[in-house]
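Backbone-to-sequence.
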């Protein structure tokens, strides 16, 4: 086991040293805080085995988790990434626990992941096991603050790797109730990074040369606009589309769907979960 102590300030290092002293299989790495992505990639480079099981310090794996996942992957060598069902634990209410389990506990084949990944993250990150061949093949975890896992699965699909989920609860996933401001800040960063990742794939495409609009004039639209400008600063951006709002947003006009040109229509980025179905119906 490789344990990376990422600059902790509690008793984590003392506890890890005690375990490592009594078990030669534990390799302890301790240094200043560099963040999750650096810690993950550092541990991966040091791993000597063919399979890597992801784990967070505050979660609890079932005793047979590694055995079950490894058996599944050995019996089907085509699987590169394998997640599991989870049981939500920690300082949360029953409704939050239920919603978390419903979100993650969906058996997913690679085909289903491909169809749903833009709407949700297909795995509970600490539950996954993957081959070292896979993670080195995609170049390790991408450098994102909160969407490093989602971006990794996107890269995996793009490069033709195979992923799946098994319907067995093998991880007790710890959650904590945070302040509203902390949750909102993390959610905003999450949406920004997802938009940033998607827009980066358009840099070399014809879309970068076209005029464009963003469907959704709420917070999602604003975040998408910021990411779009960061990636494609010279893009011919014309404004926002929203059935329920009017006026301007960030000095750009807010159009109704009926105001969109019927010919030479701009490329439209949908940045609204509420308006997604409406946009699909409008264009299809």
């Amino acid at each position: 086991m490789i344990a990376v102590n990422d600059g902790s300030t509690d008793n984590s290092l003392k506890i890890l040293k005690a375990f490592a002293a009594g078990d030669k299989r534990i390799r302890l790495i301790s240094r200043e805080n560099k963040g999750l992505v650096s810690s993950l990639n550092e541990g991966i480079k040091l791993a000597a085995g063919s399979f890597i099981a992801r784990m967070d310090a505050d979660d609890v794996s079932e005793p047979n988790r590694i055995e079950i996942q490894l058996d599944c992957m050995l019996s089907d060598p085509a699987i590169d990434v394998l997640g599991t069902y989870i049981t939500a634990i920690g300082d949360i209410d029953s409704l939050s626990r239920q919603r978390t389990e419903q979100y993650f506990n969906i058996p997913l084949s690679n085909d289903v992941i491909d169809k749903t990944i833009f709407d949700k993250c297909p795995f509970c990150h600490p539950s996954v096991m993957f081959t070292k061949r896979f993670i080195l093949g995609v170049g390790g975890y991408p450098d994102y603050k909160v969407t490093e896992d989602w971006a990794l699965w996107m890269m995996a699909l793009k490069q033709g790797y195979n992923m799946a989920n098994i319907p067995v609860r093998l991880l007790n996933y710890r959650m904590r109730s945070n302040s509203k401001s902390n949750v909102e800040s993390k959610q905003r960063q999450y949406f920004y990074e997802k938009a940033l990742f998607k827009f980066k794939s358009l840099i070399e495409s014809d879309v970068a040369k076209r005029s464009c609009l963003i469907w959704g004039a709420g917070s999602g639209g604003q975040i998408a606009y910021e990411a779009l400008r960061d990636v494609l600063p010279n893009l011919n951006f014309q404004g926002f589309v929203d059935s329920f709002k009017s006026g301007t947003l960030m000095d750009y006009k807010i159009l109704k769907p009926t105001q969109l040109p019927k010919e030479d229509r701009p490329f439209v980025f949908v940045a609204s979960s509420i308006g997604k179905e409406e946009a699909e119906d409008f264009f299809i």
